[in-house]
Design a protein that fits this description.
The chain is α/β, with parallel strands linked by helices and 232 residues long. It has nine helices and twelve strands. Strand 7 and strand 8 form a beta hairpin. It is elongated and about 55 Å long. Bound molecules: calcium ion.
Length: 232
């Protein structure tokens, strides 16, 4: 079954352009120009990824992203105008996986969409369950499942990628740039805050420092480090 992408963009021409590029790659595409309808569609239809314009006429894109995030971890790629850096950061903090700045090349957008969909699907070479911290955390790359204290935790593709990268080398410090490149698989003109936002969201989902201590350490001036040991 082809993956389904929901394109949310109020500019008709741009929306149809994006649709045609995605369809050319064999993806199934739903479109809407309304933020309210996007939230509705995302909750009713099976959607594998959402391309979301931040500048929508009815509901601000960030609000749409937040609404969608409350109910699902469907990856989101945001479309932003160059002047909207603050919005862009806000969007990433909500949990969007990537953004493309307008004007953008549709080809570039397609590459990013495909990269995220691939990450979501996991790779054939992925390994089975690995347990950390005396069974506190289990990462099953093959099934693409993370559990904390045997409870499954839903992660966005970016959060998942960061966790897998860190856990692959417990104790090793990864710089933010290194993490961005590992997770995205391509050079990314990124802001450090992008990674910080994702790590913050990831921690909120997997950590209870009052009970277990930290799972991810911040190493000031250097980056992040996985704090648990792999179980034998
Ligand atoms: Ca717009």
């Amino acid at each position: 079954m082809p993956a389904t992408v929901l394109v949310v963009e109020d500019e008709y021409k741009l929306r149809e352009l994006v649709r045609s590029y995605l369809e050319r790659e064999g993806l199934s595409v739903l479109t809407t120009g309304s933020g309210a309808e996007a939230v509705d569609l995302a909750s009713r239809a099976v959607v594998d990824l959402i391309v979301l314009d931040l500048g929508l006429p009815d509901v601000p894109g960030e609000e749409v992203a937040r609404e969608i995030r409350r109910r699902s971890d469907t990856p989101i790629v945001m479309l932003t105008a160059k002047t909207e850096q603050r919005d862009r950061i806000a969007g990433l903090e909500i949990g969007a996986d990537d953004y493309v700045t307008k004007p953008f090349s549709p080809k570039e957008l397609v590459l990013r969409v495909q990269a995220i969909l691939r990450r979501g699907a996991g790779s054939a070479a992925a390994s089975g369950p690995a347990s950390y911290g005396g069974g506190l955390l289990v990462i099953d790359e093959h099934k693409r499942v993370t559990t904390v204290r045997a409870q499954e935790v839903a992660l966005t593709p970016t959060e998942w990628g960061i966790l897998v990268a860190l856990a692959a080398a417990p104790g090793r410090v990864f710089s933010r740039l290194e993490l961005i490149n590992k997770v995205r698989g391509y050079e990314f003109e990124g802001y450090e805050r992008t990674v910080d936002s994702h790590v913050k969201n990831l921690r909120r989902k997997i950590e209870r420092p009052d009970v277990d201590g930290a799972i991810i350490d911040t190493v000031v001036g250097a980056g992040y480090r996985f704090a648990l040991r792999r179980d034998p």
